[in-house]
Structure formats: C-alpha cells, structure tokens
C-alpha cells in the first residue's frame, strides 16, 4: 500500500506555494507584521477554496479530506502567512459534526465565502469565562487572529461558543507577542450573547481542539522544513577555508539530524489526518501525539538552523526569526507538549481523566 499525497494533493500544494512565493518574500512579510491579513491575499485564499477546504459541498465548500487541510496548513507555515485559518478549521469541524442544521447554515457558507473570519481561544486559561447557555461573561486568556475577526470561537464551562464580534459588551486588549505574523489579545465579555455549538456537548470542544492542534502542528512542520531548507542552502553558499561549510562533517551531521527528525513528523501528521476521515475515534489521540512531537522537533530544527547560519541567522536581514517565533508560539497555543501528552495519556486510560 502506498501512503502519500495524491496527484491532486501535490497539485494543491504546488498551487498554494506558487501563489505565496510570488507575494510573500521576506520584505513583503516584514511589511505585513502586526497587521490583519490583507484583503487581496484573503480574497485569493477564498478563491482557491482554502477557507472551505473541509466544508461540505452543500454549503459551497470543497469537501476535501483532513489530509488536504494539512497540505494547506503546512504551506501557510512555510511562508509564515498571516492568514487566519486555524479558527475557521476548528469551527468547521465542530459545526459539521455536532452543530444543528441552523448552525451549519449560519456559519459554514460564511466560512467558505470568507465573509467570516474567526479568532480562537484555547481551552487552557478560559475557566474565568462562564456561560449560562445564552450569554458569556468573563475575561479570556490569549485569543489568536483578533485583527479583522468577525467572530470569536471560545470555550467555557466545557462548551464551545461562537460570539459575534459586533455584539456589545466585548472589550479587546491587544497584546504584543513575539510572533508578529498574527494578532493576539485578551478579550472580555460582559453578558454577551453567544451560540453554543452542539448544545454544550463536550465532544464539540474536543473535536475543535483536536483539529486546531493538528493544524498548528502542520503549520509548525511547514515552518521547520523551511528553516531546514534555508540552512542547507546557506551551507552550500557560505565558504570558509575555500570550501562550502556544508562540506564540513559537523554541518553534515547537523543537517542529517534535522532530516531524521522531520521525516517521522511527516508520517505522524499524515496518519493523524487520515484518522479524521477513516477512524474518527482515534483522531483526538493522534492529533495530540502529532502536535507534541512536531512542536518539540520544530524547536530543535529552528535552533539548529540559526546556529548553521551563524551570526547572520540572528539578524533582521534574513528574517529567520519570523519562522523561529512562529514555531515557538505554535508550541504553546492550544496546549504545550506536556499538557497535550497528559491529555493523550487520559484518552488511553493511563491516568484518570479529568475535566479541565
């Protein structure tokens, strides 16, 4: 059995890479820092069908697989693209599996058309939020992709909530984060009307978190692979003692270690995506395993890439810090490796499961 990308998935990946390579060189990325996703890029993402990649066809989506979604997320990480996709994927999966027909009609077409942009907040730190089923009150922890967002996807009292950003009683405190390719904030809600997905079913929270974690892992993988490719290219261009530094044994060892670390991550990501469609009961577990491994590996790859570049790697000129910071921020979003491994242990029954 051959387990890999199909011709259509390879074409999808190449199409996305060609688009971003023409528009997001290092200077363009720097110009977009601390700003919402530009309308022209967002519209192109919509026209390519990326926002509706797992939205069913009856709601104008592409109805593709989760593996297709990983192809998209990986490409976004490769270019540290400022495109707010994670929240859209989380709400799509939750509404598709656990929402009622009114909620599918309310959200899925808007996700596909790009008229809805979703800011999302993780489970950890949101115990200060309370929900009575109709209104949410409290102060969240970090919310991601706030700039330009029309809706907030939040978690409170083991419920998955959608809040319309136009409602009164919402206060946004913007944060300065090391990752300036995305926007972060703390959001306060004062009795704001909310829509509970899946009538408060905890499974809606679990599927949203699982899709978000796997998408962040793919984003990290794309960024880490880019840093490896940059290090390899630099090692062949940088000369010392009349020979490229890539010919030195120590550099060869570092590059080979990077490849050896990356390849198992690719397999784990693809298999986790495969379970979403083929074995849903296993999906949350494998999404946890994928994110915990990929974020640890990504951190090592980023560090090694900077070291191979030497002093130049730490300058603004090459811009490697943008990928490094993206990887480091992804590591903590929706749970760091330690907490996610704890969740994986709970799922497998190794430790007592607790509602957190």
Supply the key terms.
single chain, 356 residues, eight-stranded mixed sheet, alpha+beta, 14% strand, 10 strands, two-stranded antiparallel sheet, Butyryl-Coa Dehydrogenase, subunit A, domain 1, Butyryl-CoA Dehydrogenase, subunit A, domain 2, Butyryl-CoA Dehydrogenase, subunit A, domain 3, 3 domains
What would you say this structure looks like, in words?
By secondary structure, the protein is of the alpha+beta class. It folds into three domains: 7-113, Butyryl-Coa Dehydrogenase, subunit A, domain 1 (Orthogonal Bundle); 118-201, Beta Barrel (Butyryl-CoA Dehydrogenase, subunit A, domain 2); 203-347, Butyryl-CoA Dehydrogenase, subunit A, domain 3, CATH 1.20.140. 53% of the residues lie in helices and 14% in strands. It has helices at 7-23, 26-31, 39-47, 66-78, 86-98, 101-113, 202-237, 249-278, 283-309, 320-332, 337-347; strands at 118-121, 130-131, 135-144, 151-156, 159-164, 170-175, 184-193, 195-197, 239-240, 243-244. Strands 1, 2, 3, 4, 5, 6, 7 and 8 form an eight-stranded mixed β-sheet that branches. The protein has a two-stranded antiparallel sheet with strand order 9-10. β2 and β3 form a beta hairpin. α8 (249-278) packs antiparallel against α9 (283-309), α9 runs antiparallel to α10 and α9 packs antiparallel against α11 (337-347). It is globular.
